[in-house]
Amino acid sequence: MGEPVVRTAKRQAMRIMGHQFVMGRTIAEALDNSLAAGNRRYRYTFDMLGEAALTGADADRYFTAYTSAIGALRARVGEYADAEARPSISVKLSAMHPRFERSHRRQVLADLTPRLVDLCVAARDAGIALTLDTEESERLELTLELLEAICREPRLADWSGCGIAVQTYQKRAPAVLRYLIGLARETRRLLHVRLVKGAYWDSEIKRGQERGLAGYPVFTRKPNTDVSYLACARIVLEDGVDLYPQFATHNAHTVAAVWHMARQSRREFEFQRLHGMGEDLYAEVTRTEGLGVPCRVYAPVGEHEDLLPYLVRRLLENGSNTSFVNRIVNENEPIENIVADPVRAVDGYERVAHPRIPLPVDIYGPSRRNSSGLHLADGAVLRELADRMQHVSRRPWIAGPLVGGRELDGQPEPLRNPANLAEVVGTVGTARAEHVGEAIGIASRAQPDWDAAGAEPRAAALDRAADLYEQSLPELVAMCVREAGKTVPDSIAEVREAVDFLRYYAARAREDFGKPERMPGPTGESNELSLHGRGVFACISPWNFPLAIFTGQVAAALAAGNSVIAKPAEQTPLVAGQAVRLLLQAGVPPEVLHFLPGDGAVVGAQAVADPRIAGVAFTGSTETAKLIHRTLAGRAGAIPVLIAETGGQNAMIVDSSALPEQVVIDAVQSAFNSAGQRCSALRVLCVQEDIAAKVMRLLAGCMNELVVGDPAFLQTDVGPVIDAQARDILEQHARKIVQGARWHHRRELGPATANGTFVAPLAVQIDSLDVLEREVFGPILHVLTYRARDLESLVDAINGTGYGLTFGIHSRIDSTVRRVAARITAGNVYVNRNMVGAVVGTQPFGGCGLSGTGPKAGGPHYLHRFAHERTLTINTSAVGGNASLLAME
Ligand code: FDA
């Protein structure tokens, strides 16, 4: 089947499904439908279809859609029997602000409060109610803050028409209800409370695991969600006299249980369902001869191109094994099971948590713990982080050569904050030539004992170091922010990656170096293969991951039984020095680990040239890697090993089936997070020409929402580049590449960037990959359009750059994904997501060609490159014959 046929079929299928779940393409159509004879027994709440806004223009459009929907309702409210029968409006806040995130709280409250108040005033004047939808748990506090602002708005003082959905799969639902009861009482109004179970359960679980949270915000067993719903219903009915109860569910058991409770409480209430779902159930519920309880239908309104994400949520809900609407149509499932009492099920559990959904810390099983993250939507967590970061920043930071455990005096040099060059964050003493020689001498003498001690004590020291890193997270974050200009979320991710490296290599060392592997062979002989450290490793790391890559190299070398000379990047010795202190505190012998800050061309070059260095682990530019390679090759004596991780010319291919909104979110993260200073960062976004105009429009809008500034502030998305030299090279490239470009867009810099080395994010169209001579290491994204028939040659051209590090594909056609993934030679390929942030042990990281030698960091083969292999063969029949053979029956 050709693409046009598939497209037509897809459009038709969307139309059919759209009809099932969407009430009308326009509010006028939806109103007409709601007033049609068969539909009049229901009440309605209209939701304008739209997902999280990407751009300010999207948010404006959504706001306008609501304003005019309320206007349209106002004109027709007289056609409904009474005030209760009138339709209401449901509002999704993330669609009304492009940064509806906790990190942008101040801006969100400033922008959204007046808009919401305007909508509420319009709704009140129209005589209709307005309810706030609730979305991901991270947005709940912001949503509640906005609701409170509405309730406290003097213009809305007498209004009892606003409400909010409360998700009972969230563990804090009862606390939220108590808060709402207090708010309603205090502001003397009736608040509408729509009790829902929640629509984002799977993504809550995934996010909890990815972020290494202490626990999940939601229950992990379905009956717990059901019981929570009933408990919340009881709170609303018994204690919530100032709440108007609205029970939104399609579950017959939930309906029946709530109905019984509600009858006893003699409260006014209504049920609610989604358009296209629960029709049979509610035919019975609403019938006067049935339960005779009113039901309101949540009815999305919009065009089918806005439908997809909503549709996906509904299809997931309808298709989920645990969902009532799915189970009720399953003829093999006995009805007693489907309407079983959830309270009894929960009573029967030995433990509340689902046995197959491990806590985020346990997702890697018994061999290692997942690193702990911070819940950045939790105000208390943020306050503690800020306090500790400030505390540690009060004293000046110092680093200097650490040789054999002794802090030596080096040549002192100040280090400045790249976000504010006037601020000196600390001082580094750079190592002298004699320090290098002395450190290598001590390290060479200490290495055999460290190797002979075996894997367990080495792994135990690394595990202890991981714990110390976690305990020092705020301090390490403060250093990454102020010394390297990294944003707070990037810095937290950096500490977590370092912790993961420590625990992962500890686990691999226990597994692979713990005891010799028995090899097969003839009887009468035992054969074993064992792994040992090579000697002294020089670990030379870059400034862009001053803690994670530094720690990863050092931890791998140590785990494999080597001693280490660690040379941090010139720009970031402070955080690396702190890492070394923690490693020594954890029990790594001071004779085994030495720290030599200094100039690469001096300290690094001297170490690499020293014949006592058995291997070099290097991350940095391809040019420097080649220089090291030549130095090592020119040395007399044994051939040393080089493990090099270098740059990339990373591309993402986007075909016309991809979802432009998702593409842009992922492209912006991949290109501009960390100010584009990641080896994995996206450099060339290749978009099929059919959707290029839309992608570029969204890209520009999304870039306008990026906050460029001091990374110490949580709302900052893009911090400075590392130094003036880097900035000047990037600006030079920017000037050249925009000349004659068919399209480009640049985010302007604000005054907050005046004192630092900032580069305004730039997206620029190019006509060919050939214009890119080398890696552009900063926030500059090149956009290349291609024709569908040129896909293969495009992949070949990307391979032809000689780099092969990361690569992204955005396509909803499986065969295209497989075809492109098979043809591309990049080391890390990501499909339908961003292409940065490789996780240790999950996405081992590293490329080929000009991008590095391998093996992949954070992968199962990495430690082996740091090791010598030895076999031991013992002739067990040499003395007195082959006893085991003779003993056989
Ligand atoms: P059912 O009894 O099948 O329960 C499904 C629930 O169980 C879901 O919440 C699901 O996540 C949960 N679940 C499944 N497996 C689980 C497990 N292992 N552990 C714990 N829980 C598990 N949603 C939302 O998030 N925000 C909103 O603002 C709204 N608004 C809204 C308005 C109206 C009028 C309706 C009818 C619905 C919503 N929804 C919503 C969607 C709503 O959350 C969704 O329809 C319900 O979760 C379905 O619950 P039922 O009782 O119908 O089904």
Characterization of the model:
With 889 residues, this protein is of the alpha/beta class. The protein has 30 helices and 30 strands. The mean pLDDT is 95. The protein binds dihydroflavine-adenine dinucleotide (FDA). Dihydroflavine-adenine dinucleotide is lined by residues 133-134, 165, 167, 169, 194, 196-201, 219-222, 224-226, 248-251, 254, 272-274, 298, 317, 322-324, 354.
Main features:
binds dihydroflavine-adenine dinucleotide; 30 strands; 17% strand; eight-stranded parallel β-barrel; globular; alpha/beta; 889 residues; 30 helices; seven-stranded mixed sheet
Number of E-type strands:
30
Contiguous helical run count: 30
The proportion of strand residues reads 15-25%
Radius of gyration: 31 Å
User: If you average the pLDDT, what whole number results?
Assistant: 95
Helix content: 40-55%
Oligomer: single chain
* Largest sheet properties: 8 strands, parallel, barrel
Describe the global form. globular
Derived from helix and strand composition plus strand pairing, the structural class reads alpha/beta
Strand order of the largest sheet: 1-2-3-4-5-6-7-8
Q: Which segments are poorly predicted (pLDDT under 50) over 5 or more consecutive residues? A: none
- What is the terminal separation in angstroms? 66 Å
Unique ligands: dihydroflavine-adenine dinucleotide
